[in-house]
Amino acid sequence: ARAGLWLRHDLRLRSNPALAAAAKLNGAEQPIPALILLCPQQMHEHDWAPIKWDLYYRHLHEFVKSAAAAGIALSIQVIESWQVAPKAVKRFAEQQQLSEVHVNVEYPLHEVRRDRAVKALLEQQGVAWHGHHGNLVVPPVLTTQTGTIYQKFTPFAKAWRQHLREQLGHNGLPFMQPVERRCKVAAAVVPEVDYPRQDSSAWVVGEDAVYQQLQGYIEERVTAYAAERDLPGLDTTSRLSPYWELGMLSPWQAVQQLAQLSPDFPDALDQGPDVWLTELIWREFYQHLMFHVPRLNYGKAFLKHTDAMQWREDADSFQRWCEGRTGFPIVDAGMRQLAAEGWMHNRVRMIVAHFLVKDLLLDWRLGEQFFMRHLIDGSFPANNGGWQWSASTGTDAAPYFRVFNPTLQSEKVDPDGSYIRRWVKELADCPKQHIHAPGKWLKDRKRSDYPQPIVDHKVARERFLAAFKAL
Ligand code: FAD
């Protein structure tokens, strides 16, 4: 048998079951053939943010070096559409005389369909296809006692932890060592790709550097997570989300780090790491949902009846939301952070999402797409899940009558206004007691450099509640 692999969102030597499986079959002296397909048309269709692509592309340049040193013979090709993928993988298998192709599975519907087509063509040629669950800790196999999928997060998280407990009991941690051959190969050439890029150099790339970031976070900062995670001014969350989305880290590596903190892992963790683990379970929850609920892949609401909602059409308000000119400082700070960094603090993501949907009564899909086009960690399942949660159209979502008051939220999450001042420069000199609702303070000073609020929250809230009740 000669095994190769097709790498997608998993450019890493550690904790990569597809790579480990191919390595095992090939013998230590033999290079492992691996294919990477880059498809600008498909990135465009899936709204890849230029900053996300820049991060992946920079990482790819690092990966070709470490892969060559580890004896992985990469072939990198640019293809014009996903329709071409089956032929390209088949050609690769023929050229390399493979009897098996290994991949780490991807869960959204487009990816499932693409892989099904590739598998069918390979099997026609007598090449076996093996999918591994390398990008989730728990594959989408969890069901309730009555055999249905989990629609609520809390029971899902409980079952997820139980599954992990059993898995660790049986097998321990899988594939954590980097794969390495006893041979080296020449580094592959990274082709030019016609897709826009936005500078991502504030984010490290390269498997080792990313892994160190994770280790450092667990050693030094995760303890404070429970207390500080909702305070965007402190900015003390891990900022690891793009690495999981792009597969430069595997979630098993987080498990490996957390397991060192408790002999009874996943039990008996301190509050900080325990709450952080729960966030990683949210990530998996949304991937499972995307896999099990096809309509989520077609832009539909999880709660079907909410698809009848009459959203407003208001290009001007949407534009002002996008540009961070709503006159609600916490909302504007978040949107400006997104534009500048390609990232936004989780709490603020929730606030701006609530604002778009509930204060402006605009379709959550507009916000979902804008986020994808700008986020460095843009992830179809997590982003869709976050938007539907905020819009009260999702599973286990915020109930519709829970309408965030942007000013009260602002006081709560940014009490001293430091986050707002960092991003909304016009308010740099605004005192703490006015920073969350600076309208009057600005008027008294006859200042028009920062806008007055574009809606009256009380009125907007009633408008939203009435529209939702009518469904
Ligand atoms: P930490 O707080 O350090 O959390 C650790 C990890 O857990 C994250 O890196 C992430 O992988 C995962 N995680 C944390 N919170 C969530 C969550 N609510 N849902 C799913 N996974 C979570 N996350 C994305 O990765 N990509 C997205 O496109 C995305 N879009 C979002 C849109 C909206 C409207 C909302 C409300 C949330 C969205 N999230 C998204 C979830 C969350 O905001 C980010 O994962 C988080 O802010 C990333 O920062 P961090 O790495 O410092 O997270």
From TrEMBL:
<dbReference type="Pfam" id="PF03441">
    <property type="entry name" value="FAD_binding_7"/>
</dbReference>
<comment type="similarity">
    <text>Belongs to the DNA photolyase class-1 family.</text>
</comment>
<protein>
    <submittedName>
        <fullName>Deoxyribodipyrimidine photo-lyase</fullName>
        <ecNumber>4.1.99.3</ecNumber>
    </submittedName>
</protein>
<feature type="domain" description="Photolyase/cryptochrome alpha/beta">
    <location>
        <begin position="1"/>
        <end position="137"/>
    </location>
</feature>
<comment type="similarity">
    <text>Belongs to the DNA photolyase family.</text>
</comment>
<keyword id="KW-0285">Flavoprotein</keyword>
<keyword id="KW-0157">Chromophore</keyword>
<dbReference type="InterPro" id="IPR036134">
    <property type="entry name" value="Crypto/Photolyase_FAD-like_sf"/>
</dbReference>
<dbReference type="InterPro" id="IPR005101">
    <property type="entry name" value="Cryptochr/Photolyase_FAD-bd"/>
</dbReference>
<dbReference type="InterPro" id="IPR036155">
    <property type="entry name" value="Crypto/Photolyase_N_sf"/>
</dbReference>
<keyword id="KW-0456">Lyase</keyword>
<dbReference type="InterPro" id="IPR002081">
    <property type="entry name" value="Cryptochrome/DNA_photolyase_1"/>
</dbReference>
<dbReference type="Pfam" id="PF00875">
    <property type="entry name" value="DNA_photolyase"/>
</dbReference>
<dbReference type="InterPro" id="IPR014729">
    <property type="entry name" value="Rossmann-like_a/b/a_fold"/>
</dbReference>
<dbReference type="InterPro" id="IPR006050">
    <property type="entry name" value="DNA_photolyase_N"/>
</dbReference>
<dbReference type="InterPro" id="IPR018394">
    <property type="entry name" value="DNA_photolyase_1_CS_C"/>
</dbReference>
<keyword id="KW-0274">FAD</keyword>
<dbReference type="GO" id="GO:0003904">
    <property type="term" value="F:deoxyribodipyrimidine photo-lyase activity"/>
</dbReference>
